[in-house]
Amino acid sequence: MILILFVLLFLFIGLGFSIWTAMGISGMIYLLIFGQVSLKILASTLVSGVDIPTLVAIPFFMLAGELMNSSGITRKLADFADYFVGRFRGGLAYVAIVVNVIMAGVSGSAVADASAVSSVLLPTMKEKGYDRPFAASINAAAAVIGPIIPPSIPMIFIGVISGLSIGRLFLGGVVPGLLMGFFLAITVAMATRKKNYPIDKKQLNPKAILSLLKDTLFALLAPLVIILGVVFGIVTLVEVAALANLYILIVSLFVYRSLRFKDIPRIFSKAAVFSTSIMIIFAVVGLYQYIVASEQLGEKLGLLVASMNLNQFTFLLLANIFFLFMGCILDAVPVMLIFFPVLLPAAIKLGVDPTHFGVIVVLNLMIGLLTPPIGALLFLEAKIADLEFDVLLRSVWPYTLALIVVLLLITYIPQLVLFIPNLIL
Q1: Virtual torsion, Cα 237, 240, 245, 250, nearest 10 deg
Q2: Please, which residues have CB within 8 angstroms of residue 59's CB and are 6 or more apart in sequence?
Q3: Full-model pTM
Q4: Which residue among 258, 311, 348, 362 is least enclosed by CB atoms within 10 Å?
Q5: For residue range 381-420, what is the model confidence (pLDDT) as tens digits?
Q6: How far is Cα 248 from Cα 107, in angstroms, rounded to an integer?
């Protein structure tokens, strides 16, 4: 019977309903027809979906990203990266990668990072003669690093619904995130080999470096405040998210003086609207979690996996295929919130470390941001770059392939994920 739930979900999505509306209506119909429950249960399951204190960190991290962009800190980070990597052919593409790695340590959201970095770099790339499909492609692909390097909003989701250590999940994303940047850089080097992009031959000298560090030091410390606070347990996840916003506000208002008090309500309201779109999905996911638990879907799936006699290699391969496919047709949030708790027991039974599995699932679904028909990052970049969607899609595939190579590496070399968590926690 539970298959009907997912048939209804895809039907409503196909009819053009938003994700949360499709999930809410399909879940309500299923419960009223097959669950034999009252509307009181519907209300309580919706509330239980968001009645989790850790979730308060999400709007704070989104606000941090908005503050970084609005205060011009993103521009300072771009100038800092440009000084060191802008000297290579296609240097601004490398700048996009480096800045996204740094920004990943603040917002934890691919869409937020793409919006912030692309609004700064795309006009500059266009001005310096970069073709728009190339510029938009590398900015879109580099933004996928955001939810992998800590802090990561998707990994907060995974930790909240499964009870896994969010600190271990955060640390598990460090090496994969850096590998993503490395493989994207290799792809850029191959793509720009025959292109006549400008080379900015800046001379590295201590005086210029010290001046640059003086201007960007406070901006570079923002990710460090967040990561060290969470990893070493100095403060809770929610507290460090709030402190990070306070830090960015003080730096923007009184150090750089790039933000005015009258700008704050606009920035806060924008972050609040963005956060609401995430939290409402959590509410309807509470409804789905109730259905999945009552139908004992996890236990049934575990028995199915056991009956198939899958080994660890095959299970992870099938899980990758499944999550890559689901990432193509659904938003990442409901996919991980519905299916991760269901597949996790089967993974553990086969000897897969839960932190390892969590990072694999997140990377799968973040790659889905670059694949049609959903492809949220593609739509965003196409809009920012004023580019046709199909043109961008044809241009982005080498970078998507580079990210899939990283996915395969972390899937079958678990220590790439687990080395740092096992070392520190």
Answers
A1: 180
A2: 271, 272, 275, 279
A3: 0.84
A4: 311
A5: 888 888 888 889 889 999 999 999 999 999 999 999 999 9
A6: 12
Using the predicted structure, report yes or no on whether residue 34 has a pLDDT greater than 80: no
Measure the CA–CA gap between 20 and 282, rounded to whole angstroms.
9
Cα 169 to Cα 182: distance, rounded to the nearest angstrom: 21
Q: Which of 56-65, 263-272, 288-297 has the highest mean pLDDT?
A: 263-272
Q: Max Cα separation, the chain?
A: 73
Cβ contact 166:237 at 8 Å: yes
Can you tell me the mean pLDDT for 7-21? Answer: 80
Name the residue ranges covered by the structural domains of the chain: 1-36, 39-424
Please tell me the predicted confidence (pLDDT) of residue 270.
83
* Nearest alpha-carbon partner for 149 in 216, 201, 202, 224: 224
Residue 8's alpha-carbon distances to 27, 30, 82, 125, 340, in angstroms, are 9, 9, 49, 44, 20
- Token match 């005086």: residue? 207
177-to-123, 148, 360 alpha-carbon distances in Å: 26, 5, 12
Band the pLDDT of 320: cuts 50, 70, 90. Answer: very high
End-to-end CA distance of the chain: 42
Half-sphere exposure at residue 327, Cβ-oriented, CA atoms within 13 angstroms: 23
